[in-house]
Amino acid sequence: MTNPEKNINIKQFPRKILPMGSMTYNERIKIDMPLPKIIMCPYIFEAAQILIYAVTGAGKSMIATTIGLGIAGCKSIFGGKWTVPNGSRKVIYFDGEMLPSVYRDRETQLLKGHKFEIFDDENWKVYHAINSERFNLFHIEGQNIFWEQIDINSPEVIILDNLNVLYRPKISGNLRESWDPMQKILFQLKRENIAVIIISHAGKSGSELGSSGHTMDMDVVLKLYPTINENNKYEMTVKMACEKGRMFGNENKKPFTLNLEKIHFEGEEKSDYGLIWRPDEKENLKSRREIAEELLRDREMTYGNIQKETGYSLGQISKINKALGLQANRKPGPRPEKETIGVK
Fold first, then answer.
1. 34-279 falls under which CATH superfamily?
2. N or C: which end of the chain has fewer CB within 10 A?
3. How do residues 229-241 score in pLDDT, each as one tens digit?
4. What is the per-residue pLDDT for 131?
């Protein structure tokens, strides 16, 4: 098989390489190696490599753009579930699918709906790969375009949307050799402390892309599940599940549902609207049930105190306790006094 890279005669951008060699624990403990800071809590941290994947039409680009705008503008998203504790960061978004005009329209709707403010315009850059026939990260030529953008813009976060378009191997995508160029790019981004968010289509089985020949070794893997919303009330409904996560505990791996709502503003045309992702209200009610279950399992609070904590009635708490198969609490707490008439 001929190697298409041999016919490309262009300069390769030099990259920083860390010194090689093994070190003992006593040698390493003397080196200043701070832990990566959180960029967007809970999932995105410095040098992290995050995969967000789903079937076609699940809202991957809308989610990815919202994440990027939130990081660039230092704004919490998804109803405050994702926050930016350490200030805004420079973001560059590589779009490989949409026409620039279509992407700008979606981008404007999200900016308006979320009331994002990009205080520094240099924090948010978009590169449209559709404008360049040479942009393919499998080839040296495309890689040089990529690194040139990195050197020009000095981003701290990169979003690749969509990997299936931006990285097109000339050989079977299931072979180890087909993934080597991308793996080298990812290793180099990690060395340079740059976080990367990869957007990808799911495989035919619905799982993330990969094979026995290669796997996408990510720090965080998030899967989106498109969901039918009631009476088409929302523009889109999607459930997000964390399948893998480093640097955070199980409490942040709980799936949650997001609704994309259309927002109209007073005095503006109906065609001029914003879009905002909001957590599903029904799931908030479920979380109240989970809080009650945890308190009942702990056996440290009376029914009356659990009632104050959750808002459930004493009867509801008793039913939840029974459903859990727990013994009844002998001290259910004070019951509301009955109103009496004419009795002192």
1. P-loop containing nucleotide triphosphate hydrolases (3.40.50.300)
2. C
3. 776 788 999 999 9
4. 83
